[in-house]
Amino acid sequence: MGIPISVLILENDSNSVFDLVREMKANGLSPLYKVVETFQSWEATVHEEDWDAIICSTREPFHSEIPVYLQYLNDKKIDIPVILLSDPEDFSKNLSYMKSGVNDLIDRKNLLRLTEVLERERRELVYRKEKNTTETFLYQSLKEIQLQKFALDQANIVSITDANGIITYVNEAFSKATGYTVSELIGQNHRILKSADKTKEDWTKIWESIQKGKVWRGEIRNIKKDGSDYWADTTIVPFTGQDGSVFQYIAIHHDITDRKLAEQQLTHDAFYDNLTGLPNRALFLARIEQKIFAYNSKNTGYPILFCINIDNFKRINHSLGNEAGDQILVIFAERLKQFSDSDAIITRLGADNFSILLTHLLAIDEGVNYALRLLERLGDPIPLGGYEIYLTASCGISAFGLGGKDADVLLRNAEIAMFHAKSQKVGTVSVFNQAMQEKIHFQLEIQNDLKKALNHNEIFVYYQPILDIKENKIGHWEALVRWRHPQRGMVSPAEFIPLAEDSGLIVPITRFVLEQAANVIEEVQIKQGLPISIAVNLSPQVFFDQNIFHWIVDLHNRRGIPYTSLQVEITESLAMKNLTETVPILSNLIDIGVKVALDDFGTGFSSLSYLEKLPLSIVKIDKSFLSNVEEGSKESFLLISIINMAHDLGYSVVAEGVEEVEQLELLKSYECDKIQGYWLSKPIASEEVIPFIHQFYSKQEKQ
Length: 703
Ligand code: C2E
Ligand code: CA
Ligand code: CA
Fold this sequence. Notes:
InterPro entries: Biofilm_reg_signaling, CheY-like_superfamily, EAL_dom, EAL_sf, GGDEF_dom, Nucleotide_cyclase, PAC, PAS. The protein has 26 helices and 27 strands. With 703 residues, the chain is of the alpha/beta class. It folds into four domains: 3-122, Rossmann fold; 141-261, PAS domain (Beta-Lactamase, 2-Layer Sandwich); 272-432, Alpha-Beta Plaits; 446-702, TIM Barrel, CATH 3.20.20. Strand 9 and strand 10 (246-255) form a beta hairpin. The longest helix is centred in the N-terminal third of the chain and has 32 residues, at 114-145. The structure holds ligand C2E and calcium ion (2 copies).
């Protein structure tokens, strides 16, 4: 048998009731409980028992009736602790009830605190009842016999002051609670306890009331001798003499520090981020509102908002682990605090999203300068576990009146501007404008449509041939994905691949491309006996987060696709992101016979030294590189040295985007191995592949 406790439950969800009862039983309580669902039945039941607590759901219909219940208890002077059962998402909203007579708030998804709260409330209820009895008793008996020193109930902390507020008596409990000895207190003013939560005006009001002979009751935060504080639920009873004037006050305190601390923790958790200690989004929005209000009424303090996001943070979590990710977030938060002026309000909006609100700048331009300096500071190396980590962040700016005047709109606009900055170039700053909003809107729409595209057969694959210019053969193709949108027509992969990467759809899309390529290999090589290999482009999300090696082995085992008929293309920036992770994946692929091409070489860092570090089969020189090349130019020497270096390392070289015969001739003279481009053919549908090959060789025979 557990400790009996009587609870009146207002709830219409039987699962919740079951959870509550189970939680109480699991923690040694033996609940006597009754469940009611309407105000009428509640009103009838509340008088039935000496309830230890009322637990009330914050869902409708109870939610709108909570004030009615509280009013009823208050009117009827019924003292039963009320504990609300809130949904986690409404937690901060429901916190406001803590001020209107509710004793505590419990998260219905996390009932861990339930028993502790019930026990605490019952303890306090017992105290209050004892105290009430003591108070009534005191009041009556003291009035009658005018006795000054009184043996008071041990449970309470008691002090007596004279008409001027000088302490004339304290009991042992008072001395124990405050840390002062009795003799240190006698003769002092009550101000010795500093009552940290009340202003001078508050005290004037209290004095005015008790001087008139009225009993005062309230909560006071006092400071102990050692500087720590304690909360006391206090009743001050004034005693009037024959002439009607007060000659002494008796104060009865009850220590409620535990409850106050629990309350403070709850409030803190609801408004601050656990990891960094920064305000969270809810509190931040409230602060922006305040600043907007101040700006509207005084016309000073122009609110400018900065939204800051760490670039490629997901990869940090992925490669270094979540713990390192957390450390980096804490360091970022610290840097934001150090960098910002004292008027700055800094928040962590969630994940690697931070925001700053400033009100001391006069114009957007100053905001841009500020953001640029901030990003520079954030780019300083971060020491972590013996390494130095280099990170960049991107920043979006919005300001009052710039496309919006409400806190949430301002914040959303700053986030839009931040996404825009990232989409242009990571590590940069963008100021919000209307066009960005439209673009984001468009992208969201496209992204939504993309989710349906695979199932609706709108995605398909084109193939572009690659010509071996030394042997005059076509055996190698690149698979390029296509999307025919039902309304917009063809959408370029340059447009939707980044969206597919953001949304994770790139994973099923790449699997689809691989399966399609396998179909072509079956048709061309296995059925027709024409040797072919097809290259598939891999995004970082696929390369790092999926097991591409297993995908290919599976394709081989399931469909008999030879490894040598498959190639993968990765970009330089992908390869460089994390060499320790990249190299073994590439080696494994090469070991089984899959060729690996480094795509778009010449657009990124184009570091020749990386060519050496990576296990590769092919280097593909980007088309932009070709457009400027003329015989004898600086670019042509660079091209020659890339080709030579690749050859030295045993890689073959494909030049992309060959459109003119002159480019072809030049590349031949530079000993380039293969070319891809419109000169040979645009990407074509799968059914055109075999006719293309036949046509190519028959033309050759004729020549
Ligand atoms: P990429 O991998 O560099 O592909 C080559 C792009 O150049 C293709 O554009 C191709 O149509 C185009 N191209 C080929 N020859 C010429 C030429 O002579 N002149 C010009 N101006 N362009 C030429 P596309 O098909 O629009 O693809 C764009 C990019 O989208 C690709 O660039 C690739 O990065 C990405 N992509 C395409 N398919 C996939 C895929 O299945 N997965 C992933 N992850 N990315 C893909
Ligand atoms: Ca490619
Ligand atoms: Ca390319």
